[in-house]
Automatic annotation (TrEMBL):
Lineage: Bacteria, Pseudomonadati, Bacteroidota, Flavobacteriia, Flavobacteriales
Record note on quaternary structure: Monomer.
Sequence motif: 'KMSKS' region, positions: 269-273
Protein name, per record: Glutamine--tRNA ligase
Record-stated family: Belongs to the class-I aminoacyl-tRNA synthetase family.
Segments forming domain Glutamyl/glutaminyl-tRNA synthetase class Ib anti-codon binding: 341-445
Residues of the tRNA synthetases class I (E and Q) anti-codon binding domain: 464-538
InterPro entries per UniProt: aa-tRNA-synth_I_CS (IPR001412), Gln-tRNA-synth (IPR004514), Gln/Glu-tRNA_Ligase (IPR050132), Gln_tRNA_ligase_bac (IPR022861), Glu/Gln-tRNA-synth (IPR000924), Glu/Gln-tRNA-synth_Ib_cat-dom (IPR020058), Glu/Gln-tRNA-synth_Ib_codon-bd (IPR020059), Rbsml_bL25/Gln-tRNA_synth_N (IPR020056)
Compartmental location: Cytoplasm
UniProt entry keywords in alphabetical sequence: Aminoacyl-tRNA synthetase, ATP-binding, Cytoplasm, Ligase, Nucleotide-binding, Protein biosynthesis
């Protein structure tokens, strides 16, 4: 029986080609080089799995090297967090190294470059340097200090090192080519003055190397064979090689840079700067907030290392950028937790249920203990005992006094099974003065106990409910986490702050009740709350307080929500057609109100924008739909629509034969001061020929 071998990704193929060309396998060496200026996020996990995975595959060393060349942003806290994340993910590094280990060597190489006429001290302002650098279509020009003498450059650079000059007064630049088509080659910075305390070297240095200079040289010092970066460093490769050219000794391994596509995940942001902003502005509760895409946040939420490694394996290593659906990450998590998480019962929105014919004291204790399976996916997980009594909590949504035909839960006159227990039948309810149900009264079939083998126990009923016995229930704080953003790409919209797309419902805290088997839970233990989802014990748990984080639901609620919103917009467009055809004015108003409510309920910003633009076409109903969305949706503003599309919408709408379209277009223009003046002449012309009274009144109100 043959097994299909997994195909190599392109980085593996490069390594295989290197080995086939005679490169010694014992010279293979890789590195993971984080900058310690923030916590690692899920995007870094892809790079981690790639580099350490190559080390495992080729039995080659992998260094953990901190590129700590910017003391203004780097802290020991970040170093410690990165190491913890790597260990949690299951990877061990060969050596723990720092670019700061090489500061003296980097300085000596810079001095040698000055002596060789390959570097000079520039004393211009950063603004002037930027102007002289030119543009992608215009070459740069030489600055006034480019041809300083070697002696003057050495003196100034030594003074920079000694702390003789203020920050910003001088920089050291490589002397390459100010007319290069690659702007990064136009005399890039090598050193800047920073009078800052470094987390490892203290106040020993007053100058610090730039990333582009330090990175490749550090690779060379460590004899890294394959330096693997993300695609944004493609243009940096020429500079990486140029710096190596200045120091390379052909008796040593020369590193080569290769680029792969970074991980782009929808419904989140991957910028460390933006993640830091969320933390600093207390929008989230620290770097390990379970809503954050940081590895520590995912860990606290209840993600497993195995699920993240599996996710990175599935998305693979490619040369082209693409956006991965967050649902895939959640799928990998469910797959893992389904195999390992014990099943327990918890009720998060409780309502009291009383079994009126259940004996108050059936065996002298007022309760009985039923057997429940811990995990049907794991035969070795065994069984546990759960207490059952006359008074239970069930989920409020699992009961309707009067239910439709397809409601497969509890209602008056209908039967359901209580998980691991008995079949019950709804009989009556008790309500408070406001008419809210406070108790559900049911009867049970005493012969129907699950697993008893009786004829009654085999009877099929429409649904099964989870529950907890009130007298045995443990109170727990349950934090219901959702995605942090309501838009697929919150930081991709022009002139929109990514914070505008925060999900107001990303965290809800409820008081729930759980079965007594959870009395001794420890932080990071994971459970499936039956019918509700997977939950993780939070680190805030203490002896007197249990705290659970919702990790992920049993189903992809966001995919369902997305499909529902897409379907709702499609159906709303059909309602537009009904509205246009409706002859009865009262019925038409009812249909229009329904359309407006549907539009207001859509949260997906990108979907709304796409729908507006897609319906800008020579069709009255489509134009009406676009204008209605633009007018009534509170998720988009007029400035969010591209000017060309907006101009086309106004122009076509004002010419529409349908008065409702013209009215909405005029109303939208009233709210669009930027475009109103552009269409003022056209509005005046329309006013002279307009026959519809409502349109005419609007135009008169404009005082054209």
């Amino acid at each position: 029986m043959s097994t299909e071998e997994k195909s190599l990704h392109f980085i593996e193929q490069i390594i295989e080609d290197s080995l086939a060309s005679g490169f010694p396998q014992d010279k293979l060496r890789f590195r993971f080089p984080p900058e310690p200026n923030g916590y690692l996020h899920i995007g870094h996990a892809k790079s981690i799995c790639l580099n350490f995975g190559l080390g495992l595959k080729y039995n080659a060393p992998v260094n953990l090297r901190f590129d700590d060349t910017n003391p203004a942003k780097e802290e020991q806290e970040y170093v410690d967090a990165i190491k913890e994340d790597l260990k949690w993910l299951g990877f061990n590094w060969t050596e723990e190294l720092y670019s700061s280990d090489y500061f003296q060597q980097l300085y000596e190489w810079a001095v040698a470059m000055i002596k060789n006429g390959k570097a000079y001290v520039d004393s211009q302002s950063s603004e002037n340097m930027a102007i002289q650098k030119g543009t992608p279509t215009q070459p740069g020009v030489d600055g006034p200090y480019r041809n300083r003498s070697i002696e003057e450059n050495l003196t100034l650079f030594g003074g920079m090192k000694n702390g003789d000059f203020p920050e910003g007064s001088h920089v050291l630049r490589a002397k390459i080519d100010m007319k290069s088509t690659n702007m990064l080659m136009r005399d890039p910075l090598m050193y800047r003055i920073l009078h800052r305390h470094h987390h490892r070297t203290g106040n020993d240095w007053n100058i610090y190397p730039m990333y582009d200079y330090a990175h490749g040289e550090s690779d060379y010092i460590e004899q890294i064979s394959h330096s693997i970066c993300t695609l944004e460093f493609v243009m940096h490769r020429e500079l990486y090689d140029w710096f190596l050219d200045q120091i390379y000794d052909d008796s040593k391994v020369r590193p080569h840079q290769y680029e792969f596509a970074r991980l782009n995940l929808n419904y989140t942001v991957m910028s460390k700067r933006k993640l830091l902003q969320l933390v600093q502005e207390n929008i989230v509760n620290g770097w390990d907030d379970p809503r954050m895409p940081t590895i520590s946040g995912l860990r606290r939420r209840g993600y497993t290392a195995a699920s993240i490694r599996k996710f990175c394996e599935i998305i693979g290593v490619a040369k082209r950028e693409n956006i991965i659906d967050f649902s895939l990450l959640e799928f990998c998590l469910r797959e893992d937790l389904n195999k390992t998480a014990p099943r327990v019962m918890a009720v998060l929105d409780p309502i009291k249920l009383i079994i009126t014919n259940y004996p108050s004291d059936p065996d002298g204790s007022g309760e009985e203990w039923l057997e429940a399976e811990n995990n049907q996916e794991d035969e070795s997980a065994g069984f546990r005992k759960v207490p059952f009594s006359r008074e239970l909590y069930i989920e409020r949504e699992d009961f309707l006094e009067e239910a439709p035909a397809k409601f497969f839960r509890l209602s008056i006159g209908r039967e359901v099974r209580l998980k691991n227990a008995y079949i019950i039948k709804g009989e009556s309810v008790v309500k408070d003065a406001a008419g809210n149900i406070t108790e559900i009264h049911v009867t049970y079939d005493e012969d129907s106990r699950s697993g008893s083998g009786s004829e009654a126990s085999q009877r099929k009923v429409a649904g099964t409910l989870h529950w907890v016995s009130i007298k045995h229930a443990l109170e727990a704080e349950v934090r219901l986490y959702d995605r942090l953003f309501i838009d697929e790409a919150p930081d991709s919209h022009k002139e929109k702050n990514f914070l505008e797309f925060m999900n107001p419902n990303s965290l809800q805290i409820v008081k729930g009740f759980v079965e007594p088997s959870l009395a001794e839970v420890k932080p990071d233990e994971k459970f499936q709350f039956q019918r509700l989802g997977y939950f993780n014990v939070d680190k805030d748990t203490t002896e007197g307080k249990i705290v659970f984080n919702k990790t992920v639901g049993l189903k992809d609620a966001w995919e369902e929500k997305g499909k529902k919103e897409e379907n709702l917009l499609m159906n709303t467009q059909k309602e537009i057609n009904k509205y246009v055809k409706e002859k009865d004015e009262n019925n038409a108003i009812l249909i229009l109100n329904s359309v407006i409510e549907n539009i207001k309920s859509i949260d997906n910003y990108s979907l709304i924008i796409q729908t507006i633009v897609k319906n800008i076409k020579n069709d009255n109903n489509s134009l009406l739909f676009s204008n209605l969305i633009l007018h009534y949706s509170d998720k988009v503003k007029i400035k969010d629509i591209e000017v060309e599309a907006l101009t086309k919408l106004y122009s076509m709408s004002l010419k529409s034969q349908m008065a409702a379209v013209r009215i909405l277009a005029i109303q939208n223009l009233q709210n669009d001061l930027n475009n109103y003046s552009v269409f003022e002449t056209q509005l005046s012309e329309i006013k002279n020929i307009e026959k519809n009274e409502k349109v005419l009144k609007l135009l008169n109100d404009l005082k054209l």
